[in-house]
Design a protein that fits this description.
single chain, alpha+beta, rod-shaped
Length: about 350
């Protein structure tokens, strides 16, 4: 009984239609497929197709109707910018002109491409099944005499390379500002609308005001007393260092102090004698300034010796008279005493 149920379940899964197993939706642009471009790639038109390809890249890299397309691992990925992010595209939502690109323009073609005509598109019906072929009948047939117009390349993206490559939200803003082209393919328009809805639903990052630059907030010290003590210690250390430098460097002392006039050095005994003479002469100098000194009278004997002889003879009678007067005064004094 158990084996019968397992066989029945396997039969139901095998009989299920291919479209029931396919998720018909557009993936969000958040997939990394291993393509990391530092510069804008060189894109060359595919002759007779409204498509560009990258001959210098080692991948199946194309541009069609305003978007970039990459075929990798049996899946298609799309992006509005040359280096992603990429979104997975369902097999039923790949534009027909992307599927029509000839085999020769796939720079890294898968193994099952071997044996197919290089000037014809890949045989997607054989690869993806008859159900897909039935849903997309005539996808490889079109009027080749009237090729579709190629869209312009978004060359403004060359200015955003390396670290300047923008994020998803900024990509959409730059795209709306610098690339006015609107896709014509209905499947591409659908993907562009889904991308815009996704970007709109993203949370807006909080950015600083342009007039208020960012400032680094330093944590405040809790113990203000310790901070003051630390500042005082630093000041004391600076003062001590300055003093030590002045002691160690006599040249700095000479530069700091103004030059003084040199004084003649005298021997110690001579200096003391000069100081004593100044002390002795100081009262006399003061007296000289207040009361001019009077010349002392010379003694009579000295004056007499200095005078000439004839003057000395003239003065002898006078002196005798004086002596007599003095004798009389002495006699009068003795009489009074008696």
């Amino acid at each position: 009984m158990r084996n019968k149920l397992i066989l029945l379940w396997m039969f139901v899964c095998a009989a299920a239609p291919a479209w029931a197993q396919v998720s018909v939706r557009i993936g969000l642009p958040s997939i990394d497929i291993g393509i990391n471009l530092r510069l804008y790639p060189e894109l060359v038109p595919v002759p007779g197709y409204p498509v560009y390809y990258a001959p210098q890249m080692d991948s199946n890299y194309f541009f069609y109707d305003g978007m970039y397309w990459v075929f990798q691992g049996d899946d298609w990925y799309a992006s509005s910018w040359y280096n992603g992010p990429w979104s997975l595209v369902d097999q039923d939502l790949v534009p027909v002109f992307v599927l029509r690109i000839p085999v020769r323009y796939y720079r890294q073609s898968p193994v099952y491409f071997r044996g197919w005509r290089p000037d014809a598109p890949p045989r997607w019906g054989e690869r993806w099944g008859n159900d897909w072929q039935q849903r997309h009948q005539g996808w490889d047939k079109w009027n080749r005499s009237m090729p579709a117009a190629r869209p312009p390349l978004p060359v403004y993206q060359r200015n955003y390379t390396g670290d300047r490559y923008p994020q998803l939200r900024e990509q959409q803003t730059l795209q709306n500002k610098n690339y006015r082209y609107q896709p014509h393919d209905p499947l591409v328009r659908q993907q562009v609308q889904e991308l815009r809805k996704h970007v709109t639903s993203m949370p807006t990052p909080i950015a600083p005001m342009p007039d208020q630059p960012r400032q680094q907030v330093r944590p405040q010290e809790r113990n203000t007393g310790a901070r003051d003590l630390r500042d005082n210690n630093q000041r004391d250390n600076q003062r001590d260092n300055q003093r030590d430098n002045q002691r160690d460097n006599p040249r700095d002392k000479q530069r700091a102090s103004p030059p003084q006039p040199a004084q003649a050095q005298q021997p110690q005994p001579q200096r003391e004698q000069m100081q004593e003479q100044d002390k002795r002469q100081q009262p006399a100098r003061v007296q000289h300034t207040d009361n001019p000194p009077q010349r002392p009278a010379a003694p009579p004997e000295a004056n007499r010796a200095q005078r000439p002889e004839h003057q000395q003879e003239r003065d002898k009678p006078n002196e005798r008279a004086k002596d007599r007067g003095n004798d009389k005064d002495d006699d009068r004094g003795s009489e009074r005493r008696k």
